[in-house]
Each structure stands twice: as C-alpha cells, then as structure tokens.
Design brief:
The protein is mainly alpha-helical. 74% of the residues lie in helices and 3% in strands. The longest helix is centred in the N-terminal third of the chain and has 26 residues.
Length: 177
C-alpha cells in the first residue's frame, strides 16, 4: 500500500475533485465520441490514472486538463478500434434505452459525429466547455492558429448540417419540411 493511499487528506482531496468534475468530463468525452458507455469507461480509467499520479498532478497545477485529455484520448482510441460497430449502430439509430434526448441534441450529436476528430474536439472544448483558444491549443497539442482554423471549419460544417431543411425528432427519424 502506498503512502498516498493511506493519506486521508489526499484521498479526500481527490474524492472532492472527482465529485466536482467527473460528470462534466463524461459529458465532454460523450460529446466528442457520441458513445456514453465508452465515455464513462474512458473517464473512469482517466481518474484511476490521475489517482496514481495525484501528487505530481496537483503539484503541477490544475489536474482537470490532464484528466480530460487522457479520457479523450482513451475514448477516441477505443472509438477508432470499434468504428465499424459504431457505424452500424448509427445507421440503425440510437439505442432504445436512451431516454429523453431532445431533437436538437440528437441533431447536434449527429452533426458532431460527422466532423473530423480534431475539429470535434476543438468544438467541444471551446464551445461546450467554454475553454479559451489558448487552453484548447495546450490540451490538444496544436497551435492557437490551428485551433482557430479547426473551429472555423467546424462551425461552417455544423452550420450547414444543422440548418439543413431536415428536422430530427427525438426518435432520430428525419422529417423533411
């Protein structure tokens, strides 16, 4: 047993951090991948890894960007390995056990899934988490200019997809109007 695991102050600090941030990290990774189960698994693994490095992460500053980055990378890696399975699920619609998704949310998630991964990640971090371009650049390992370009291209693509004459119902079926 490590000294860290026996330190109740460290454990309480980590528990408070987890309680305050985990739901938002899951939401972020879910928005990036479109797969809630994968997002939850990746986030859980990221927090396990954060606990193993907790002393160093807190000494270096805010551990949240590190956790978010690790969770995103884990989820995207898993997503790439299972891309064909996900595509088949998307063709057949959302799982029946996903309750209460609004038509807007269904349309947004579908549009986000169509973006290249780098653009999708930039949009989620900047627009859904309200991170400044500089922090998005730091978390993604890109330049500020590259992030701005990704955001611009993503906004244009999302605008085209979301202002299409097709409206989505909560069931995910298209109605042309």
């Amino acid at each position: 047993m490590t000294t860290q695991s026996r330190d109740p102050d460290r454990a309480a600090e980590f528990d408070a951090f987890y309680a305050a941030t985990a739901k938002r990290v899951v939401a972020t990774v879910y928005a990036m991948t479109g797969d809630l189960a994968e997002a939850e698994d990746a986030v859980q693994e990221a927090y396990v890894r954060a606990w193993q490095r907790w002393e160093r992460l807190t000494r270096e500053g805010d551990p949240l960007p590190w956790v978010r980055t690790v969770a995103s990378r884990l989820a995207i890696s898993t997503w790439r390995r299972t891309r064909n399975r996900l595509r088949a699920q998307l063709r057949h619609g959302a799982a029946a056990d996903v309750p209460g998704l609004s038509a807007d949310r269904v349309a947004l998630l579908a549009a986000l899934r169509e973006l290249p991964p780098q653009q999708r990640r930039a949009v989620v971090l900047h627009h859904l988490l309200d991170l400044p371009v500089e922090q998005v650049a730091q978390e993604t390992g890109a330049s500020n200019g590259a992030v701005r370009t990704r955001l611009s291209r993503a906004r244009k693509a999302l605008e085209e997809r979301l202002t299409d004459t097709t409206a989505f119902t909560a069931e995910g079926t298209a109605h042309h109007g």
